[in-house]
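In response to reviewer comment 3 from the previous cycle, which asked for concrete evidence that the modeling workflow produces usable outputs, we include below a single protein chain processed end to end. The sequence was submitted unchanged, and the resulting structure tokens are shown without manual editing.
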Amino acid sequence: MTTKAAPSAPSPALAPAPRWARRAAHAVALCAVPSGLWRIAMASGIYVGYSDEVLRDVFGIPGWGIAYVVGLAVVSEVAALFPLLLVTDRWQPLRPRTLAALARTASALTIVFALSQVVVAFTVESETYLAGTAHTVWAFAFAPLTAVPFLLTAVTWSYSRRRRA
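The workflow returned the following structure tokens.
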């Protein structure tokens, strides 16, 4: 005769993520799409403003640069999906405290990286190899990424507050 184990005590119900946090997490994922599409266009040979010489010498396209640029687009989008883990209760790959610590670290690193890019943009004279309309299209494709540090920080704060981690 087998005895059933007593059911474990249910974990206390946690409040779902607020609507604004869910929207912010989805916005992070959407912010990476334009730059990823721009990179894929560049890798597939669509003219994005670079000369054939720049594509070959600087980016290695055609060649290994295609895999690098497409891989960068894929990795960027996968990383941009991370905040969705902070607003869903369906699947948690890590313990809440671990996920909160990882989110805080990612948020801090994203802010530091964004600030370093602003400093570089205003202090270092660099060649962009783009001019005119191509540079404007590039700017519009990458501009949404400037919102990521703020959105990720807000989602991380919401998660930490809900989990009390």
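The mean pLDDT is 81. We consider this sufficient to address the reviewer's concern, and the full set will be provided in the supplementary archive.
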